[in-house]
Design a protein that fits this description.
Layout (H helix, E strand, L loop, with lengths): L4 E4 L3 H12 L4 E5 L9 E2 L2 E5 L10 E4 L4 H10 L4 E2 L2 E2 L4 E2 L4 E2 L4 E2 L4 E2 L4 E2 L4 E2 L4 E2 L4 E2 L4 E2 L4 E2 L4 E2 L4 E2 L4 E2 L4 E2 L4 E2 L4 E2 L7 E4 L4 E5 L8
Parallel strand pairs: 1-2, 1-5, 2-4, 5-6, 7-10, 8-11, 9-12, 10-13, 11-14, 12-15, 13-16, 14-17, 15-18, 16-19, 17-20, 18-21, 19-22, 20-23, 22-24
Antiparallel strand pairs: 3-4, 24-25
Length: 212
């Protein structure tokens, strides 16, 4: 099990990671998922070996194939000694000056421009773009087709929905969600759901990780 990258999760997000690994010519050790009905099945030919407890037996690289920011944060905290891998699809363009934190994944057609910094376990999804000098915290998810202009800050746990956008220099507070198609034109606080053009908070969330 130590030969290749181990993917944690066996759902749709894990499938895209398996596809990215294969496109990059990388070997896959298998997948882990705590849902027993997945055990023994395959995802794009990679076998689901068992539950996440087997992660402790794996000495090689691993990546969290789970879309929920909160679940990724929780699992990463439970396994601090894992050698979390960085996965970049070969059709993505990432400037050499960009910093990608451990566990971060960048999918097909994404673009990340110079001097941008991403924390741990981020997702830059299909066709998303992040312009120069932006800063993303840990466990951020930039959904397919989302657009961040230069100098944008997304704090820990932010979710930018499909087709959303942020103008230059704005910030989004920790664990906030910007709905699909929303446009961030001024700073948003932590722990809110914001929608619309311009994006305005419609719901206050409890502080901390927001699962689901």
């Amino acid at each position: 099990m130590n030969d290749g990258v181990l993917v944690i999760g066996a759902g749709g997000h894990a499938k895209v990671i398996v596809g990215a690994l294969r496109a990059a010519g990388r070997k896959i050790a298998g997948l882990l998922d705590d849902r027993a009905e997945y055990h023994g099945t395959t995802v794009l030919g990679a076998r689901v070996l068992g539950g996440s407890a087997l992660l402790e037996l794996h000495d090689g690289p691993a990546v969290l194939g789970i879309g929920s920011n909160a679940v990724r944060a929780r699992l990463a905290g439970q396994h601090p000694d894992v050698a979390w891998d960085v996965v970049v699809h070969p059709t993505a363009w990432v400037d050499p000056s960009v910093v990608l934190g451990p566990g971060t994944v960048v999918f097909a057609g994404a673009v990340i421009q110079p001097d941008t910094r991403l924390g741990r376990h981020c997702i830059v999804n299909t066709g998303a773009s992040i312009d120069h000098d932006s800063v993303l915290g840990n466990c951020v998810h930039v959904a397919p087709g989302a657009r961040l202009a230069g100098g944008v800050t997304l704090e820990d746990g932010v979710f930018m929905g499909i087709g959303s956008a942020a103008i230059p220099g704005v910030s989004v507070g920790a664990w906030s969600t910007v709905g699909a198609g929303g446009a961030v034109v001024s700073d948003l606080p932590a722990n809110v759901i914001a929608v619309g053009v311009p994006a305005r908070p419609i719901k206050q969330l409890d502080s901390g990780w927001q699962e689901g």
